[in-house]
Structures are given as structure tokens and as C-alpha cells.
From TrEMBL:
<dbReference type="InterPro" id="IPR019332">
    <property type="entry name" value="OSCP1"/>
</dbReference>
<dbReference type="GO" id="GO:0005737">
    <property type="term" value="C:cytoplasm"/>
</dbReference>
<dbReference type="GO" id="GO:0005886">
    <property type="term" value="C:plasma membrane"/>
</dbReference>
<protein>
    <submittedName>
        <fullName>Organic solute carrier partner 1</fullName>
    </submittedName>
</protein>
<dbReference type="Pfam" id="PF10188">
    <property type="entry name" value="Oscp1"/>
</dbReference>
Amino acid sequence: MSVRTLPLLFLNLGGEMLYILDQRLRAQNIPGDKARKVLNDIISTMFNRKFMEELFKPQELYSKKALRTVYERLAHASIMKLNQASMDKLYDLMTMAFKYQVLLCPRPKDVLLVTFNHLDTIKGFIQDSPTILQQVDETFRQLTEIYGGLSAGEFQLIRQTLLIFFQDLHIRRECFWKHILEFCTWAK
């Protein structure tokens, strides 16, 4: 198991979470200022400087339960509230989407490119907040610094660690597409 996997897992799942939430906010015609606040609050919490410092320290992956709890707290870091069924669907979509992306990577180092794509997308969600943008840019810099010099073998170990993490997470394709179509009931 690689002790360098956790930041990649966290950032990619977080990117998927933000993408899904953005899509749901748009689909439900949530006013732009409220949608921006939801996304900015979550991104600001996700890229908290102290949290990122801890995240980038070499360490084993969090347990599946602990990681899910982190995302539940992230999702509720804003004015938006999700009920348990919606959170279950959100987490299923996040994990299945990133698992699929990892499986599609022809080279192990491509996991880093997937992460960069997620960070670019996250930066696109940020509006009217240079402080939050700076937090994401700092994370981008840390990723480049830490992962830029890793060998192909180290990336293979990271990819293998991710696949081991995902191996027990199953959702039938029919359920996956059903989740995509009916995701998320917003609590009032």
C-alpha cells in the first residue's frame, strides 16, 4: 500500500462531489448566488490550509467509513443539507465515477492527470473569491512538487492502492445510471 495515495483519493472524490452538486444545483434551478455560496463554502472547507498540510503527510488511507464521514461533513459545510438517501447516492456516484476513471488510466501516472483535471474543474467553480482560488492553487503546487518526481513504480503502487480501496465498492450498472438520473433530494 502506498502512503502517498490519500491526497489523490481525497481530491478526486472531492472533485466528483463538486461536479455532481453543481449539476444538481443547476438542474434544480437554484439561484446563482446560493449555488455559488454552496460551492464556495464546500471548496473553502475542502482546501483548508491546515487540513491540506495533514492530508499531504505520508499516511495510510482512511477507512472507508472515515472517508465517507469526511465527505458528509464537507457536503454539510454549506447552507445545503442532504438527507441520508441523497448522501448515499452522492457517495455512490462519487466513488463509481472515480473508480471508473482509475480503471481507464492506461498508465499509472495518468491518475495524477485525472487529479489535475479535477482541480482545474474545481477552480472553474470558484467565483468572487481570490482567497479560495489561492487555496486551490497552493494544493496544485503541492501536488506538482510531491508527485512530479515519483517513479512509474511508485505510481503503479498508488494506482494499485486505489483499486484495492475500490474493490469492495460495488454498484450495479443499472443502479448507477438510476442514481445519475434521480440523484439528490434537497432538504428544506
